[in-house]
Amino acid sequence: xxxxxxxxxxxxxxxxxxxxxxxxxxxxxxxxxxxxxxxxxxxxxxxxxxxxxxxxxxxxxxxxxxxxxxxxxxxxxxxxxxxxxxxxxxxxxxxxxxxxxxxxxxxxxxxxxxxxxxxxxxxxxxxxxxxxxxxxxxxxxxxxxxxxxxxxxxxxxxxxxxxxxxxxxxxxxxxxxxxxxxxxxxxxxxxxxxxxxxxxxxxxxxxxxxxxxxxxxxxxxxxxxxxxxxxxxxxxxxxxxxxxxxxxxxxxxxxxxxxxxxxxxxxxxxxxxxxxxx
Length: 278
Known about the structure:
- By secondary structure, the protein is an alpha+beta fold.
- The chain has a single domain, classed as Jelly Rolls (Sandwich), CATH 2.60.120.
- The chain has six helices and 15 strands.
- A seven-stranded antiparallel β-sheet has the order 3-13-8-15-6-5-4. Strands 7-14-9-12 form a four-stranded antiparallel β-sheet, with no helix packed on it.
- A hairpin with a 2-residue loop joins strand 1 and strand 2 (14-15).
């Protein structure tokens, strides 16, 4: 893990991204930013996060699900607790410090006009070696639209390590074509999860362990995934994804909200048959 940055990178609602980090994001399709939130600043966010895990904040339907398996599991059986659109179900969270700093990062990486497309919580339970997030490109889940600027900010609530399932990337794949994806189960009605193939002989797999309060930011087309959690602690992550404002407007016009409760899957909306995304 890289060392934490000096406090002067954090300035109220802003976080300063260096020129080198901008270059790495453009080259690799992702970048690791250290110390976006201090431990003290994480306290208020962590308290709300754990209210979701305790189910004190109600999340209806499939927006609370297990991303490692299928929709038939009970909550206690989930390996990866997935909460879609937490800011919808807990409006008081909107505009929190993490959202503000992530917005400043998205603007530095892509310029003006970036807005929140969706947010998400992903928590891997302790001793869940099957808490694997399959290899995928986010674009496979979304309508393909002309303005593809994306900054998906992934905040570590806990230290994210090789042992508990940190993020892994295949750098540079955002510059290639979208790979064929297929549902984890028979169809999207059984499991929301899509996956694609990665060849270790051809693809450079780069694990990215990060500290609590660090983030990774990635492009919509870079291949990424994560392994299981073999430790005694949770591996909690909080995602806020930014896209260009016209892209989000068009998504909503198509009826696509990133909710797992949507009547249509993205594959249906953009005309792909299962396993035929391209």
